[in-house]
Amino acid sequence: MAETTDVAIIGGGAAGCAVAYYLAQSGVKSTIIEREGIGNQASGYSAGGLNPLTGIGIPGPLGAFGWECFQLHMDLYGSLKDQTGIDYQQRTVAKIDLALEESDVPDLQAMVELFQGVDGFNARWLGPEEIAKLEPRITPNVLGGLYDYGNNAVDSHMLTQAFASAAEKMGATVRAGNVQNLEGSGGKIDRVILSDGEISCGQVVMAMGPWSRRAESWLGVYIPVDPLKGEIIRLENNSEPFKHDLAGGGGTIYPKLDGLNWCGTTEDWKGFDREPSPQVAHEIRERVVRLVPDLANAKIVKHTACLRPVTPDWLPVLGRAPGWENVYLATGAGKKGILLATGIGRSIADLMTTGETTLSIQGYSPDRFATQLD
Ligand SMILES: Cc1cc2nc3c(=O)[nH]c(=O)nc-3n(C[C@H](O)[C@H](O)[C@H](O)COP(=O)(O)OP(=O)(O)OC[C@H]3O[C@@H](n4cnc5c(N)ncnc54)[C@H](O)[C@@H]3O)c2cc1C
């Protein structure tokens, strides 16, 4: 029998699964089509930070939306965990950004005010003695540091699984498959072509992450999303777990609830190369040892590499595809796709069901890239 679905969602990362979840909440059934397993790309191997007050575009064009997404996460955790039985371990984190050079100090001190007066957040400047008291394993060469409290972190693989699982409980389907093309006419797509069949559909959501450009030729629409490789090494902890996330000099150390220190993260334009590189592991280690010398001999338990979906202006691409009545783009979340997943899911579901959304996505329309391909 021919397969059919109301909404075909192509891509089972955080973006696609969140769209399926919020659509299901609005009573719309979808099929998530994923070729490599739910959350098995960047959405499964990210650092899982929900940091709404800092990063590219914040303060700036990502600020309001980032904050809305953070609030959605705060409201979601309890109910999504209860609905699915998947505890994706959302928690509030304390972080110290360490100044290792004199030139680091002014920028870090200036960041204190970003956190001031924001509900649930606080920050202050720490001198070397205070840092040594908080965490004696930090290098004695530190000049000071920015302490902040209020960001959250999740296990992003489990979060993505939870979105998919909750959507399934509300009537969505997860279908393994590799999408090869879309077919339709008169401004509407009505069939998704897979390597092992086809699915008739009422609407389509493109949530293909860094592979989104593949759909340019299917739709004749410019979708400038490129892959930015990121690697993380997970180091065994042979002593007390660290109580703070640590960063500085290009290195980061995130103590996770799995008992390991996740260290990274790197940024390399290497096309679709997803191979973990021993050279990069060595560089990450050098950076984190500058922060915590004790980590020099810690065993690498796992090393992962994956691809962030990045646009030319570092903003997501959310909304209806130019020239198509029933195709929506949900991609391009770059370095913030776990934070933004809630707002991506909610806003796309809103647009598809009511034609509008109260979330601040005005600057992220696919129309800003103008243009249909010839
Ligand atoms: C090292 C690293 C650390 C990060 N840390 C953070 C962080 O701390 N906080 C944060 O908010 N973000 C972080 N990110 C960014 C975040 O992981 C990404 O922005 C987010 O995962 C993107 O989600 P996505 O669903 O758009 O893409 P993906 O997770 O890549 O999902 C896209 C899916 O589409 C599928 N697909 C593609 N084409 C097809 C096709 N033709 N047929 C079927 N399936 C297809 C793929 O298999 C894939 O599963 C990090 C990223 C990296 C690499």
> What structural class results from the helix and strand content?
alpha/beta
Low-confidence stretches: none
| Count of individual beta strands | 17
Helix content: 25-40%
Which ions and ligands are bound to the chains?
Answer: flavin-adenine dinucleotide
Q: In one word, what is the shape?
A: elongated
What share of residues are in beta strands? 25-35%
- Note the total helix count: 9
Helix-strand pattern: EHEHEHEHEHEHEEEEHEEEEHEEEH
Q: Oligomer, anyone?
A: single chain
Spatial gap, N to C terminus: 36 Å
CATH superfamily of the largest domain: FAD/NAD(P)-binding domain
Can you summarize the main beta sheet? 9 strands, mixed
CATH fold-level assignment of the largest domain: FAD/NAD(P)-binding domain
- Radius of gyration over C-alpha positions, nearest whole angstrom: 21 Å
Number of domains: 2
Write structural notes for this entry:
The chain is of the alpha/beta class and 374 residues long. It folds into two domains: 3-84 and 156-225 and 315-369, 3-Layer(bba) Sandwich (FAD/NAD(P)-binding domain), CATH 3.50.50.60; 92-150 and 227-310, D-Amino Acid Oxidase, Chain A, domain 2, CATH 3.30.9.10. 28% of the residues lie in helices and 29% in strands. Strands 3, 4, 5, 6, 11, 12, 13, 14 and 15 form a nine-stranded mixed β-sheet that branches. Strands 1, 2, 7, 8, 9, 10, 16 and 17 form an eight-stranded mixed β-sheet that branches. Helix 1 packs parallel to helix 9 (337-354) and helix 3 (63-84) packs across helix 6. Flavin-adenine dinucleotide binds next to helix 1, strand 2, helix 2, strand 11 and strand 15.
